[in-house]
Specification:
Blueprint (H helix, E strand, L loop, with lengths): L4 E7 L3 E8 L2 E9 L10 H15 L6 E8 L2 E3 L4 E4 L12 H9 L3 E5 H12 L8 E6 L3 E7 L2 E2 L31 H4 L5 H6 L6 H5 L6 H9 L3 H25 L3 E5 L6 H15 L8 E4 L6 H21 L1
Parallel strand pairs: 1-4, 4-7, 8-11, 11-12
Antiparallel strand pairs: 1-2, 2-3, 5-6, 8-9, 9-10
Helix pairs in contact: 3-10, 7-8, 8-9
The structure holds zinc ion.
Length: 323
C-alpha cells in the first residue's frame, strides 16, 4: 500500500500553501487565505476541501497518497508529531492531534516540522545550496526564521529547536522588548512585525516621516531608498545592519559554506544582498575563505520541497513495518 503522491502544506501567517508532490516535484498547487491569529482548528475543514480538490483534479484518490507533510511556523516535536510552542500564529495548534486528522481523513501518516528548518532543507536539496554540506538560511518576512544544515544534515538539538531561533539572537541587550519575552532580538530590532515601532523610535528620522510609520512596509521603504529618500535610507540601513550582525553571529556559530536569504523582504535583494555581503566580509572572522551570501532559489516553495526530505523517511519506515 501507499501511493506515489504526497501532500505538503505550508502554514503561513496569511496564506496556507498546499502542494501535491510526485517525484520531488510539485505537480499541483493551491492556496487558501488564512488568519493565523484566529487559530488552526477553523482552517482544517478548508484545508481538507483544498486537498480533496487537488486529488480530484489530478484524477486520483486517497489510496494514491503516501503521506502528508505540514510546515508549521512555531516549535514542534516531530517525533511525537506535536506543536509544542507558538508565537501569535495558530496558537490552538498545541491542542490539535494533527496525525489523527491526517489518518482520519486520508489514512496516511503526517510529518510535522518547523517551517524555517524545512526551508533550509529545501534549498540544500533542491535549491541554491545544492551540493553543499553546511548551510544557514535566514527567512526575513513578518518575523525572522532560521534553519541550519551542519555536516550534511539538518540540526535538531535536545528540544528540537537547534538552529530555529536565529531570529531571537540578541543584537542589542538594551533594545526593544521582543514578542518572545527577551530584549533586543534580531526580530524585535529589524522585522516587519515591529517596523512601525522601529521607525517611530529612530531619533535620526524626521517627525513627518514618523507620522507615516503605520503605512510603510519594507517594500515601500526600499522603493523610497532607491529614489534617494534620506529617512527611508536611514531606516533600511539600520535594519540591514541588524541582519548583517545576526548573520556574522550565525557564521561564527555554525561555520557554513553559504548563507541563504529568503522571505518577502528579499524582493529588495538588489539593495540587501550587496549591503550584507560587505557587512559580513568586513566583520566575520573567517580567515580561510569568504562565506557566500546568496538569494533563495525556491522562494515560497522552499518549505514545501523541504518536506519531501522528511516524507521520504516516513516511507522508508513504512516499508520496514511492512517487512
Ligand atoms: Zn525574541
Amino acid at each position: 500500500m501507499g501511493g506515489i503522491y504526497d501532500v505538503a502544506i505550508d502554514l503561513g501567517g496569511t496564506i496556507i500553501k498546499i502542494g501535491l508532490i510526485r517525484n520531488a516535484e510539485i505537480v499541483r498547487f493551491s492556496t487558501i487565505s488564512s488568519d493565523s491569529v484566529k487559530g488552526l482548528s477553523h482552517m482544517l475543514p478548508k484545508m481538507e476541501r483544498a486537498i480533496d480538490l487537488l486529488l480530484l483534479e489530478e484524477g486520483i484518490d486517497a489510496a494514491s497518497l503516501s503521506s502528508i507533510g505540514l510546515a508549521f511556523p512555531g516549535m514542534v516535536n516531530p517525533v511525537e508529531c506535536r506543536v509544542i510552542s507558538t508565537n501569535d500564529k495558530y496558537d490552538d495548534a498545541c491542542d490539535i492531534d494533527l496525525c489523527r486528522w491526517a489518518d482520519d481523513h486520508w489514512g496516511v501518516p503526517l510529518v510535522l516540522e518547523n517551517d524555517a528548518r524545512l526551508a533550509v532543507v529545501g534549498e540544500w536539496l533542491y535549491g541554491v545550496a545544492t551540493g553543499t554540506e553546511n548551510v544557514v538560511m535566514m527567512t526575513i518576512g513578518t518575523g525572522i526564521g532560521t534553519g541550519v544544515i551542519l555536516d550534511n544534515k539538518p540540526i535538531v538539538g535536545h528540544h528540537h529547536q537547534a538552529g530555529s531561533l536565529g531570529g531571537h539572537l540578541v543584537v542589542d541587550y538594551r533594545g526593544r522588548l521582543c514578542s518572545c519575552g527577551n530584549i533586543g532580538c534580531v526580530e524585535a530590532m529589524a522585522s516587519s512585525f515591529f517596523l512601525s515601532d522601529i521607525i517611530r523610535s529612530n531619533d535620526k528620522v524626521s517627525d513627518e516621516f514618523k507620522a507615516l510609520a503605520d503605512e510603510l512596509d519594507f517594500k515601500r521603504l526600499f522603493e523610497m531608498m532607491r529614489q534617494g529618500d534620506e529617512n527611508a535610507t536611514i531606516v533600511c540601513n539600520g535594519c540591514m545592519s541588524v541582519w548583517g550582525a545576526a548573520i556574522v553571529s550565525y557564521i561564527h556559530a555554525y561555520d557554513p559554506e553559504v548563507v541563504v536569504l529568503g522571505g518577502g523582504v528579499m524582493k529588495s535583494s538588489d539593495i540587501i544582498l550587496p549591503y550584507i555581503e560587505k557587512w559580513v566580509n568586513d566583520r566575520a572572522w573567517t580567515p580561510i575563505d569568504r562565506v557566500r551570501i546568496v538569494l533563495s532559489k525556491l522562494g515560497d516553495n522552499a518549505a514545501l520541497l523541504g518536506l519531501n526530505y522528511y516524507l521520504r523517511s516516513v516511507k522508508r519506515e513504512k516499508n520496514v513495518f511492512k517487512v
